[in-house]
Design goal:
The protein has 334 residues and is mainly beta. The protein is 6% helix and 46% strand. It has a 17-stranded mixed β-sheet.
């Protein structure tokens, strides 16, 4: 499953959820949604590791704010070993991502740096050969750098998938993952979303990924076995209010759901009074019983650009505690 880049999962955090009428800890609710810097059906999910589809940011907002670079630092919060009450905490760097943008807001380069025990152990870069096409696909070249012979390059590459475009028709798109040879299909035409149509047109194997919808707006993602038996099913629900129902690249996600027996994972996007994404809640259930919940708070600056994301996990019958923090900084065009 490591190579299936569309599994809905937050790195290092278990996916969780709520339903439409959820209110977060800060009074943020699932109200009207407006365009946001992050495309929340791709950001904070394993879609980030599908580097051939750099659709994690809203290009128009990047361009409008003249952003040339975003640096995103990931920290794990560790309790001080010498404090009995655990009051001393330390931020340990885990990863850093650097996104470089052109004037049109298109991503031109992505650098990913890895850390262990506070020390950099390696990095990988992805350079894009031109802008994305209408489906969000862009050819990309990978460059890696290992800092020691003991480092395993495959480890650093594990979460990054590169695809090549195989076929484009009015009905579907076909891409092949370079590392594995498995296929990623997008069934664009809703008239062919039935299981028999998918099988007869795409002929997928159990290792292939099927997406009903487009790369920008997937409706359902799954694999199939014995032609009609769906596995690893993920569903996407989008806002239907007048601000978000338009069929544009600004349409926003409301809920993500993944079924993986005996567990159900859900994510609900919450908005602030201005309609901006302020929080998202991930919840895990088993046979209808609540197991865990993670609240991720998105803090923004005066320009309404995210600068900090705090991930707090809560297990049944315990109090909330912080798991990890993301810090974002920006550079702008002159």
């Amino acid at each position: 499953m490591g190579k299936i880049v569309y599994s809905i999962g937050l790195i290092g955090i278990v996916l969780l959820s709520c339903n439409r009428d959820v209110t977060g800890e800060n009074g943020i609710s699932s109200g009207n949604s407006v365009p946001f810097l992050f495309r929340m059906n791709a950001m904070f999910t394993d879609a980030e590791q599908n580097v051939s589809f750099p659709i994690w940011f809203n290009d128009s907002i990047v361009s409008k704010n003249k952003i040339s670079k975003i640096t995103r630092r990931f920290y794990v919060i560790e309790k001080g070993e010498n404090e009995e009450d655990g009051s001393q905490e330390a931020l340990m760097p885990r990863e850093k991502k650097e996104y470089f943008f052109g004037k049109s807001g298109q991503l031109e380069r992505l650098n990913v740096l890895y850390y262990f025990d506070g020390q950099k152990i390696g990095n990988v870069s992805f350079v894009y050969q031109g802008n994305k096409d209408q489906f969000g696909f862009a050819p990309v070249t990978r460059i890696s750098d290992r800092l020691g012979e003991e480092d395993d390059d495959d480890e650093l590459n594990f979460y990054h998938a590169i695809h090549k475009k195989v076929k484009v028709t009015d009905k579907f798109l076909a891409f092949q993952q370079i590392q594995t040879g498995d296929y990623l299909f997008y069934m664009l035409n809703r008239n062919f979303w039935g299981p028999l149509s998918v099988d007869s047109i795409l002929r997928p194997t159990p290792k292939d990924i099927i997406v009903l919808g487009s790369p920008y707006f997937p409706s359902k993602i799954y694999r199939v076995q014995n032609k009609v038996n769906e596995m690893d099913v993920q569903s996407f629900v989008y806002w239907t209010n007048t601000k978000a129902k338009q069929k544009t690249k600004n349409k926003n996600i409301q809920t993500l759901i993944r079924q993986e027996y005996p567990f159900e994972y859900k994510r609900t996007i919450l908005t602030d009074k201005d309609g901006k994404c302020g929080e998202y809640i991930d919840s895990t259930f088993s046979e209808g019983k609540f197991l865990t919940r993670t609240l991720s708070e998105i803090h923004s600056n005066t320009k309404k650009l995210p600068v900090k994301i705090i991930h707090k996990k809560q297990v049944k019958s315990t109090s909330s505690n912080r798991l990890s923090v993301e810090i974002l900084t920006y550079e702008f065009q002159h």
